[in-house]
Hints:
Chain A: It comes from Methylotuvimicrobium buryatense (Methylomicrobium buryatense). Chain A: One of its GO terms (molecular function) is transition metal ion binding. Chain A: InterPro entries: Formylmethanofuran_DH_suC, Glu_synth_asu_C, Glu_synth_asu_C_sf. By secondary structure, chain A is mostly beta strands. Helix content of chain A is 8%, strand content 31%. Chain A contains 4 helices and 17 strands. Chain A is elongated. In chain B, strands 6, 7, 8, 9, 12, 13, 16, 20, 25 and 26 form a 10-stranded parallel sheet that branches. In chain B, strands 1, 2, 3, 4, 5, 21, 22, 23 and 24 form a 9-stranded mixed sheet that branches. In chain B, helix 4 links the parallel strand 7 and strand 8 (137-143). In chain B, helix 6 (160-174) crosses helix 8 and helix 9 packs parallel to helix 10. The longest helix of chain B is centred in the middle third of the chain and has 17 residues, at 350-366. Classes of the chains: A mainly beta, B alpha/beta.
Amino acid sequence: xxxxxxxxxQRPAQRxxxxxxxxxxxxxxxxxxxxxxxxxxxKRKIRVDELFTIxxxxxQQIVIKNSYAKLDFIGKELTEGEIRIEGDVGSxxxxxxxxGTITVNGNAGLFAACxxxxxxxxxxxxxxxxxxxxxxxxxxxxxxxxxxVKGNAGERVGDHMRRGVILIEGNAGDYCGSxxxxxxxxxxxxxxxxxxxxxxxGTLLLWNKPELPAxxxxxxxxxxxxxxxxxxxxxxxxxxxxxxxxVFNRVRRYGGDMAEMGRGEVLVxx
Amino acid sequence: MLIRLKGGxxxxxxxxxxxxxxxxxxxxSVIVDKPEAGAMIDADYDIAGCVxxxxxxxxxxHIAGGNVNTARLLLPEQHRNFVARKLGHRFSTSRWSAxxxxxxxxxxxxxxxxxxxxxxxxxxDAHLQMADIPIIDTAGLAILGNDDYLLRLxxxxxxxxxxxxYVAWTLHSTRCLGLKVINAGGANAFKSNARSFDxxxxxxxxxxSSRHILQTLQRAACEVEIPHPVHVHCNNLGVPGNxxxxxxxxxxxxxxxxxxxxxxxxxxxxxxxxxxSSAAAKLIDGFKKHPNITMDVGQVLFGQTVTISGDxxxxxxxxxxxxxxxxxxxxxxxxxxxxxVPYRYKETSFVNSLQWLIGLEIxxxxxxxxxxxxxTDHPNGAPFTxxxxxxxxxxxxxxxxxxxxxxxxxxVAMSLLKDLDKEFSLYDIAVMTRTAAARLLGLxxxxxxxxxxxxxxxxYREQADxxxxxxxxELLFKNGRLAVQNGAVVERCNGTAQVVQPLFDxxxxxxxxxxxxxxxxxxxxxxxxxxxxxxxxxxxxxxxHACGRPYLAENAR
Lengths: 270, 557
């Protein structure tokens, strides 16, 4: 069966909520049913076929073509299957996603993979602020799964993150790993100011020396046997993280944030 | 414009009408006598089979002000869970918006709601929020008793007349209807690290006891003739065994009128294996011995809510019970403090079940709807939107017993609720939520259907299921205009704010000016409420009511 493909006809001026177009909600629907679904856009409701040309049948494999930065909530609470997006996506990509795979061949907006529980998200471009974070007011961000960003990430990566892995090949903005409860964030590029701000537990693995708050303690240099094992777990990804040349085990360790519980660690490659 | 409501069953305790079938006439915004034969009736509503009451009055519901906004900020998920996209209302997609507050109250037949905790420095904010609430009339109670200025006056042995001037000036400058005292002195003692504060505890640095502050303010309220008795949130809220505090506070009232708020939270004994038991019977015994005391219940109902209070000691002490797990406690330097703790009341919980039972025991034991009022202390015990369900609990014994089965049985075994047979009548409900409530607040123009009253009239379709009946009014007239029809709002009109303006000696303004200049980082003029840009002129927005002796139930009946 061919992938169910939505090709955007024209770009609406208002943002569009694409949360109905996820594999588990479309399973069993006929193409006419899918065409008749309504999407919220500003204060209007738009039929799916008004916005997209629809082709293919396989609801376990969704492709969105010609996507642009105002298509929000793609893959919200996805529980199965695969979504591939050609172009940019708006905010809340994979919000609360429970399983499955999302691939974006473009940039993502704010709150990508926010409160994600399981599954795999790959963003081949850049991503906005609050990657893998908690929604405003909530206290638990990403709880599991893996996010791979090939470009740069915005501020507050992994804010309130609780479990799971975020891999960033480019740079991360300010407050990377802020208020983390647990989990792992690896950044190959640079990080901004206030890295690990109010971190409770969790690990930041950095390739470059960060600008840390004064409430982090230098714990000296270490050779950590677990790092090669961690890298081994990235081996299957299409990423620089899978490259055997990227593997290292020698780091400088910083513990913090002592203004919080202080059991987080920032590991910087030596 | 003359309107007739024809053939409804009228419940109006002010005229001792208990379900009599009678026509109600009102011209423009005022209820009038039956006009002479041949008078032209502009609109006629046939409401046979319906119950007619005055618009309901909520005497204690936190609908505006600093703490309410803080709770909104703390719980954005409440907004997200509520994106119903009812287009055309301002901010209607968010929970707890002013619009939603007004609409939901109106749909239940409410026309006047009192915000019972306005910190004087937050008065302007509270009034702007209240002005944003459509349809219903509002009023505020100004909080005193933890403020540095009053405690300084008392420490320096100021005369009662000076304190009276300060109280009267506060009501003027905050445009409030009455005086609220929250755990007198407690919020101030909290700043000196006190984590519990009893009636006879002394505020550090000031040397005045909670009892002394309370009695001083009560006397002031009587002497400047605020019709609503001083509205008291006692010490030790929610602490097992605090029934003694409530009884001691009744005693401390020395026979003068006093209103004790959300008394369910004070009906707690410390007996039993868990050190927590119902003391409703003991509380009501004391209540019956003190005819000068009025109370409202503050019933707990199950579900998610958020507790907001100026009693920072109580809020701080339950921060670890926050659900979801986040809370805010704040401090307004010279004025007081407060806290916001989200909470979910659960039927499986022993404590929550017992709280639910104690509230209903108080309702059913008190036997006096002229002195005991209907509240959930919104949102502390439950959101006001659950009122219809509470009315059903009061009016329907079988339903009550049914609900008991869902509760924590250990708590049920300790309660006498299953043996209480009383069922409230529609007349009792009309007393409690209309006539007595209006008199308690000193609002003679409402709460009844006598000629001359404001035409705030609620019409309900009579149904066996009282929850359904009171959830959606068939018709609601606000100021004589049809605001709700068949449970849906048909006109968004503006309400007014009710105030009293007791007299005071203007010399106190100079002292206050100096005090604010010295201790506040903004001038006095920034805090007082005047020329509020609320979309209505001040003269239209604020409705002044006469001063007079505080409410005593024995004179009201």
